[in-house]
Amino acid sequence: MSQSEVEQLYTLLDETTTILRSALASSYLDAFIENVDNIIDDGQVQVEDGQPTEAVVKQLQEKYAAINFSKVSPEDVRTVIQLSMIKAIKEDSIQSNHQMTPDTIGFLMSFLLERVTKLSDEFTILDPSVGTANLLTTVINHLQAETKQKATGYGIDNDDSMLAVASINVALQKLPITLYHQDAVDSLDIPLVDMVVSDLPVGYYPLDDNTKNYETRADKGHSYVHHLLIEQSINYLKPGGFGVFLIPSSLFQTEESKQFVEWINRHAHMQGLINLPDELFTTKQGQKSILLLQRRGPESKQAKQILLGTFPSFKNKPELAKFMREIDKWVASNLAE
């Protein structure tokens, strides 16, 4: 689809969501979820307790007739849903932990996984904090396109609304991703996977009893949820598998970092830590980095030189391309068999 066609599709979604929002007196996000569920259900409008009215149902169905997702590429579907979520975040003042990973960061994480994994077969991938599935589907679409290998994905989240959007994302993109509504710190009913990608939530995990079996749990008080989810991710990686995590740049500057690093050294190889450009963040406290970990296994090894650096400004395409080539050189020197 051209950019204008994508915009037209988004506009139709926005118009129908707004009509439904007004009719149901709901949040934009809830109206969006119900609206797209109607579209997926062949344009059948869900009516409960007489709402929406027959007049609104007719108005919606007339507009639904112009919406056809069957010929839309997965990436265009993802873009349309992303635009809708940006509108929802603005309209409903959704908290920052629920906001989506920017595409530029998603593409960098995809590139990194593509380069370090050297896929030659079907692969499995987990996101333990899947949210709307924007990051997970970005990575799967990129890896399937570049490697021509099929993916099977798993996404975990305990937020009903975010998982509802993820379900829409997965259904419309026709991707083989299984979603689980649960706390990712609890035991997961999934197989070991080839790789993990996640934009981790940041802060304290309130349920101390759930962390008793975690080596990264705090000695006193609540534990950092991002520490726990990285440990959980490594536990569900196949030996030698890679995890790429979006983390606070201050991760290794906290009092708990010594214990966290000791855990990494026991169970994984810290292969890379790349800072993201300052321009992506409004405050220094909000700055993020990309952490590359590899689960220890019979054939894994610590890189002779950890991949360190800072991505150049995304506006400076020559420098960005140069940095990508440096990553290729690093992989050839440190990870190639």
TrEMBL record:
Keywords: Methyltransferase, Transferase
InterPro entries: DNA_methylase_A-5, DNA_Protect_Modify, S-AdoMet-dep_Ade-MeTrfase_prd, SAM-dependent_MTases_sf, YtxK-like_N
Domain DNA methylase adenine-specific: 101-308
Residue intervals of the YtxK-like N-terminal helical domain: 7-88
Source domain of life: Bacteria
GO terms, molecular function: DNA binding; N-methyltransferase activity
Pfam families: N6_Mtase (PF02384), YtxK_like (PF21106)
A GO BP entry: methylation
PANTHER family, alphabetized: ADENINE-SPECIFIC METHYLTRANSFERASE (PTHR41313), DNA METHYLASE ADENINE-SPECIFIC DOMAIN-CONTAINING PROTEIN (PTHR41313:SF1)
Protein name: Class I SAM-dependent methyltransferase
Organism: Paucilactobacillus nenjiangensis
